């Protein structure tokens, strides 16, 4: 059997032996004496080592570190591969740092939505009046992703900040149409609005949920906020069994983004909103819901 102090040196952090000690084993540095010096200190103190780590020779000691695993000298360290292959500490993503939570929107969020909608080029933005209409008429089809700013000791509790939103209405059409996107002039007085015999705006009972806006505050784009919100939205609608499909229009460069959630491209859209040039995308629930 080799000298335990030699084995400590072999396994100390920073040694290029391919093995990674546990993070709490870093404390073995004891103020960073050299490995040889540390080995001497531990050897004199009678601390036995197995593969570079202290043995648990005091069975009566109740204060056992949860991460501590005793490895007998006669045992093969290969029986404890997890000791050496522990995955690296989880690094928090930029999304984690927002401590995000999702919540339905309401008419009280109109100004927040107007701010988030700035993510779009001007001609593609949903107007304030449309937000008032959609969040008053069918708030259950919306979803917001919020972050709660840290509380400053001297200041009152901060209000959650809307980072991203999805706002939608229902239509009886299989795709998003310009009519579905319109703002009915008399929506406050009339439950239904027809123009030329066709429904305009939100159609209660329509089997298609037409998403009119998915937007993320520019400073929070590229942090998985949009995809997290969209996944959450799809999950909610699917689980609630409240629609046959979700439809959206998008420009070409975002087609793969929507396809990654299961939307299928249906080719060029007839929508002329914001100058046109859109692709119809549809996520069908029908088969899944019947079989589940
Ligand atoms: C499009 C948008 C909603 C995406 O949200 P996001 O939080 O920035 O995107 P995510 O971080 O979740 O991106 C996930 C993936 O989507 C794709 N993606 C995101 N934005 C993209 C873009 N502008 N072009 C192409 N692909 C894009 C990427 O593949 C990305 O993967 P990656 O992180 O490995 O690069 C957001 O950028 C936005 O609000 N844009 C302006 C408004 C808009 O165009 N809305 C869509 C209307 S159809």
From TrEMBL:
InterPro entries, sorted: Acyl_CoA_acyltransferase, GNAT_dom, SNAT-like
GO molecular function: aralkylamine N-acetyltransferase activity
Gene Ontology CC: cytoplasm
Renumbered residue ranges of the record's region Disordered: 1-34
Keyword tags: Acyltransferase, Transferase
Stretches assigned to the N-acetyltransferase domain: 194-284
Keyword Translocase: no
Keyword Cytoplasm listed: no
Record PANTHER family: SEROTONIN N-ACETYLTRANSFERASE
Protein name per Swiss-Prot or TrEMBL: N-acetyltransferase domain-containing protein
Organism: Penicillium angulare
